[in-house]
Amino acid sequence: MMKHIDLPDTIAVFPLPGALLLPRARLPLHIFEPRYLAMLDDCLKSPTRLIGMIQPREVPGGEKKLSAIGCAGRLTGFNETEDGRYMITLTGVSRFRIREEVQGFAPYRRCLVDWTPFARDLGTAEEDKGFDRRGFLDLLGRFLAARKLGTDWSSLKDAETEMLINALSMLLPLAPEDKQALLESPSLTARRETLVTLIEFALRSGGAPDEVLQ
Known about the structure:
Helix content is 33%, strand content 27%. The protein is of the alpha+beta class. The strands form two sheets. It has a five-stranded mixed β-barrel with strand order 1-3-6-7-8. Strands 4-5 form a two-stranded antiparallel ribbon.
């Protein structure tokens, strides 16, 4: 298990709106842009094999900047297609706060980061002692029905609490700013409460494209 002292001060970051990675969760990605193929090649050569997932945000004037907080994942799955694209899996290691963006000759973005606010991320799975699984799954069922989404209920009922909350935070069709709020939640309990609030708001407001939750 990694310690914060083992984590690099500077990491490559992959800005991708709506893509959420959380500690101990897995995120599949399809890499095909030349700059990110170069990032992946460099990642494979590094001892930690870390890539920072970060949400871009638009500021007045149309300029796109990076959110303050992201989550780094270790490259744990890798497959190259015949046409030179990569199918990869990142396993979440720890969130980070950006200190500053590093200028250089790499075609992708790199940032100097601070891991210390998120020391808990490198520990064991979090618990949520106030979690009402039956009530939560009932709410989720109404959300999925309203959006005409399908899922494997048996896996949801049997999943560990952290895996369940984090997987739904990553997979449910929510706006990028909502995903960022889930990322920045200070604890699993706070993330679950935020997710419940977002689902309840979505049910009240209505309207979402049809999708299938895997």
